[in-house]
Design brief:
- The strands form 2 sheets. A 4-stranded mixed beta sheet has the order 1-2-4-3.
- About 45% of the residues lie in helices and about 20% in strands.
- It has 6 helices and 7 strands.
- The two termini are about 35 Å apart.
- α3 crosses α4.
Length: about 190
Amino acid sequence: MVKTFGTTIGPITCQIIRSSRKTLALQVLPNGEVLIRSPQKLPVEHIEAFVQSKAGWLGKHAIKQIEPVLTAAQLHTLAQQALQVIPQRVEFYAPIVGVAYGSITIRNQRTRWGSCSSKGNLNFNCLLMFAPSQVVDYVVVHELCHRKHLDHSVAFWAEVERVMPDYRLHKKWLKDNGNRLIAKLG
């Protein structure tokens, strides 16, 4: 039986295999398919509650299975895409923040989404191309605000909020999904 369960991370489609076993078990196959091994007569409501309680684990492991590591050629293409998108967003937001900036560099990094040097040079992670456009804008605004405050002080965050009042949503998206994107680097 195949069933889709609504979870906190979105819908998860699972194949339920019932047998004479006494406990529930989850398995993520290499193709990303999720199997639930269940006692024969366990009500679907109990299975659904179990899936909901394991949603975070399932999401993390299913994503690892179905999202391949990027090749060098794919990273190059992604960096080229970022070079088309990010400088335009920087150009748009710099006057709103009220700052000038130096060069813009695109990298593939495991620990940072962006950075700003004391000379005003900006670096951005090409993996941002997998994020929603509002998240890209948040990272751009974040780095441009470092042109005014080279720290994460109250004044810095006030400046980010002035430019992007809903920045917390986009910051949270990166926190919740960033590891999934970084995993693409292998």
